[in-house]
Records
---
Amino acid sequence: MKGEQKPRRSRGLVTTIVVLALLGGGAYGYVRTTQRPAAKAKVATAAPVPVTLGTVDQGPFALLLNGLGTVQAYNTVQVRTRVDGEIQQVAFREGQNVRKGDVLVQIDPRPYQATLDQAKAKKDQDTANLNNAKADLVRYTGLGAYASRQQTETQTALVAQLTAQVASDQASIDNATTQLGYATVRAPIDGVTGFRQVDIGNIVTAAGQSPIVTITQVEPIFVVFTAPEDQLPAIGGALRTGDVPVSAWTTDGLTKLADGKLALFNNQVDTATGTIRLKAVFQNQNHALWPGLSVSTKMRVGTVAAATTVPDDAVQHGPDGLFAFVIDESGHAHQRALKAGRSDSGRTQVLAGDLKPGDRVITAGQYKVQDGSLVADPHAAHTAQAETAAPGRSARAEP
């Protein structure tokens, strides 16, 4: 009986393996049959490419010329002494706003005061001699025939000599008064003081080369910048019709510093660079512009009443030139060639191209998009949902 049990066990094991094989094959076929259409459906319904959209607009557009410039002070004065002497007082602070006539430095005035007093005393002496000579001349003249002609002429010459001497004394007084005034150094212009170059107790001389302080006038102030020579006719035409607005920005173009107007353009073109130098004036009451500062400039030379514009980021560079992706009603992107003009405030003028006001264009995410791709703006959808939900929240908030 034991010998008969082994064949039965072997046959049972073989039967089990066959059944499992059949079940596995059926399951595999079922999975392939049921999953293949689902995979095809997944490929057929690929997700749209996420992008950011903007719109094509039409309206007034400023024609701007961008440039780079340097701020220059309206006036710069190096204050020096005009007399020699010891500094007794420094009456200003570094970086202080000063007005014309404000006292900056006081130099020892005593030597110049003494010279002035001496000149006044000399004039008084000569005036007394002149008065005496005039009295003698009157007496000689009154004697008539009793006075010789020589005495009269000599006395007349003496009166003239003393009169000239008194005039010379007055000139000496004026000169001494001027020198005494120079002992008080005053601000020649309105402006801002720089670093102080002298201290109290120092001896300064009129022949010295080092200034006491430098004053720069910053209200108003200039910006010198350049423009291409081919824009000279447009600039000249705009300047003839009235003020040409110019704005100064930081060099990265993100922050506006001041608004001004074009003052003039240079009388010749730089042939080496093909540019023309221009100068704009700014009131600069907030001192946003400082001498030597590098700025970028935007000069408006005209305005287009009805210009077609697109966001700057919508303009792309391709092998055939500039283009933009326009979205149709079904959400598919189509590449449209265009010719771009100037740019202002984040928008570019479209000079030529199949773009119409109201068209939607891609402003971000173009690197994933091809002609005919299905796209969607998740930010716009989220905004629409929020606007739709907002009235419901308001209605629920009402009593």
---
Amino acid sequence: MSTSLHTSTGPVSAARLSPFHTLRQGVRRTGFEIRGYTRSPESIFFTFLFPILMLALFSTVFGADGEVSYGQGLPPLSAAAMYLPGMLAAGVLLSGLQNLAIDIALERHDGTLKRLGGTPLSPVSYFVGKIGQVLVTGVVQAAAVLAFAALVLGVELPSDPESWLTFAWVFLLGLATSAFLGIALSAIPRSARSASAVVIPVALVLQFISGVYLFFWLLPEWLQNVANVFPLAWMAKGMRAVFLPPEYAALEQNGAWDLGWVAVALVVWLVVGLVISRITFRWIRRDA
């Protein structure tokens, strides 16, 4: 005998409430989210192409002198090689935090979430769909940035498996952290018009203080300490550990890459984002 639960949309069988069904619905939702993403020129530009364009711009503006040494005894590098780690970290932030925060806020205020709340789709399946979309687009974006850096700008990429393993966990952990923080941040905008005005300045300020547009070691120490409170600085540091020569660790605050602390900081922020998302997410705003 099958059991059922009665919801606002009618009886729902226990099978439809199983983890397998929830995951399957989330995977289906991922496909829907990806199709919606590719139909939005604004999303493609500001979260997909933006890091590539910025890498090209900084490489052109600051690369006139070719390879230069950024410190005594450090091997010379091109501007493109120096900016690549920061742009990869920025791409993770834009794909997760900025993309989801704006997208979910818009869906809340145009009635999409209200309509979904009247269907058997669970919030978990909805989150799986959103994070699945971020994962797919984030991987494609990172591959595009790396291909552009190597094939167009001539950046020499790592050849050892250890570096790529580090890249994989920093990238995936950073992407998950950014995604949950984006879901949490989506609860702040009170109208569709204010979504971009709230989210984009936050992302932009974090990029300026976290070693994306300005070399982190050139910032005042107090500003470095402020940036280290937030996850983007740790993502950028992890990326520098992958793509810069080992000697460049001497320019970091502690003279080391501190990958263990990178992992700790990102896990802490992932948990913070997950808890806030769980507490604040509603199909309909309470103050609506």
---
Amino acid sequence: MSDEANLLYMLAALVFGYLLGSIPFGLIFTRMAGLGDVRKIGSGNIGATNVLRTGRKGIAAATLLGDMLKGTAAVAIAALWGPQFAIVAGLGAFFGHLFPVWLGFKGGKGVATFIGVLLGLKPLAALIFALIWLGIAFTSRYSSLSALIASAATPIILWLLGEPGMAGLAIILAALLWWKHSQNISRLLAGTEGKIGQKG
């Protein structure tokens, strides 16, 4: 493949991933359920944790699954072109979730999509991420703290699994995830962060 063709495929993978990642499942599902605009409750986030604050566990679970699988789908489809395109599509999907064009570039915080991208690239890493998240969530009841610790561990996990390219992607995703959680970090330090299942 020529350099020009490779660049074109890279751009296509990035845009494809972005468009998939920008689908706001939390907003779509809550509106379909007659719950209104999820951005007007709790943290104002469109992700599953905030959807859970509506009290509708089924809708929150559907949001989590949708946000995960859009990352997985982007990676799996782009992988048909080659592994490097899968990584680029994963980056695009994550950006799409964080900055969806349909919502004025104000999206979610990326945890579910992070897991979905990992699931498409390296299922074992996704499993380890989920186990770390569950362990921290069970002991602390803080979704944000669980995501911060699990995402920070992911680049190391991928490196140890012999995937330096994926580890590089995970560093970028984790940095963005931490940035999107900056207010959560401030609340955690202040002891005012909301816990899992707590209604806003």
---
Amino acid sequence: MHDTATLSLMSAPFLLAAVPAILSVGLSKGGLTAIGGLAVPLLAFAVPPTVASGIVLPLLCFSDLFAMWTFRHHIDRKLLWPLVVAAIFGVVIGFLTFRMMEERTVGLLIGLVTVLFTVRYWLGAYLDRLAAKAPPTPRAGLFWSVMSGFTSFIAHAGGPPLMFYLLPLKLNRMTFTSTTVYFFGIINLIKLPFFAVLGLLSADNLAISAALAPVALIGVVIGTWLLRVMNEQLFYRVSYILTFVAGLKLMWDGLPLA
């Protein structure tokens, strides 16, 4: 186990995991939203999953501010607020159950959510066709929002559950992006006091987050640039393979016999 009090930001193993992990945070806020779930699994190669979550959350909130300002004009508020309220229940459930789980169990859950996240992407077209046959109801939206709040609290991976509801609505691109950005921006801010109570926002973790903030900003810039010049399909294919492998590693580490 790693102790953040003695963790050196200049150690090669930590930087090898931290730089791509935090870059993925910035990339996701710069427009490549689908790879946001990569941060915690990657960082968990260097520090325990709970520490990784504590380091990543302030950087998510920091990056969210830029995204929320950019997409402030296209929010569907009537859709947004019921989803946020439901997601808060999921956050509270995550908070109340967090202390009941051992650290390896948390890692196992993060790995499981990560693997399901990648499988959801690979089966996206098939699942979307199934969803189109049964248009989502407001009750389904509340259910998936609760699940999103829970998985967001445990693994900063609330995207897949929310997508199960939002994608079949076929919103226009700007409304979809803006509403999603604000949903997670608000939920990430709400998670901060809960993380503080759990001791995940220690002075050491916050110092590491602050030191890595420029990496997140660089990620935002690179993400915006990549959207214009890179083969997007290739980028996502590589990103999801890395995410899947990182998720499997977390699951293996969390198994009782590992």
